[in-house]
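HOLO CASE FILE
Compound: zinc ion
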Amino acid sequence: MRRQILRPDKELFRRPVAIVAAHPDDELIGLGSLVPYFQEIRAIVHTTDGAPRNGPDIRNAGVATWLDYAQLRRNEFRASLQAGEIFPDRAICLWIPDQQAAFRMPQLTLRLVSIFTRLRPRFVLTHSYEGGHPDHDSTAAAVHYAVACLRGAGASSPCVLEFASYHASESGMEAETFLQNSLAPFEQRALGDAGRLAKRKLLASYASQQNVLSQFPLCYEPVRAAPEYDFTKPPHPGTLFYERFDWGMNGREWRRLAQAARRRLDLG
Ligand SMILES: [Zn+2]
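Model generated. Tokens follow.
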């Protein structure tokens, strides 16, 4: 069956949606120009607290502890909602430590099953599987696993749409597009001046993340229907983006954990 190219339009904006992102600010990196247009956001879910326990982030943000840093990022998220006049029914954090979502995929999946069952979004928007950050891939896998659990139980389940974050490229990092591996078609969606300005205004709320956020060109923001992923296979050949950093994970280990989670959830 030929898959249709998804175009975010008035029809989609009217439907009840949930956004599931790994870190505070991912929802804006992927969907910043669109989020204010959704009329019924049942939940914006962050799977992690955005506070890596190791590394310089806490010190660089000028706070004392990981808890302070997590709270700072939560406050920035709430400020971005105010800046965009975005009113989700619920803003949920699942409080998994940053960089550790891969180790909690079964629990994460079950939390999402519960959230989807309770809130009944028609669409869920999440990361694509692209090897950019292990928490992004783990969040994507948990969303797909949660939908598979619901389907397996004969319950209604949301359609999974996905937004782009970032991944490895020959020049270093590629953002604002999906991997060019033709797993699912998409159309690039250019932001234009107004969209870029609006997105920049929202991103400004994340003051502690400006070093990272300034690397995004804010030119495109594609959304597509998610393909059926095989999480036991790498998202692309070669070194994954996160394998270039000391983030405590490599692709082989991540895929082992994804496969173990699948078995533990009885998904075959
Ligand atoms: Zn992220």
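CASE NOTES: Residues 22-23, 26, 133, 136 surround zinc ion (CB under 6 Å). Strands lie at 16-21, 40-48, 91-96, 123-127, 159-163, 166-169, 172-175, 223-225.
CLOSED: yes
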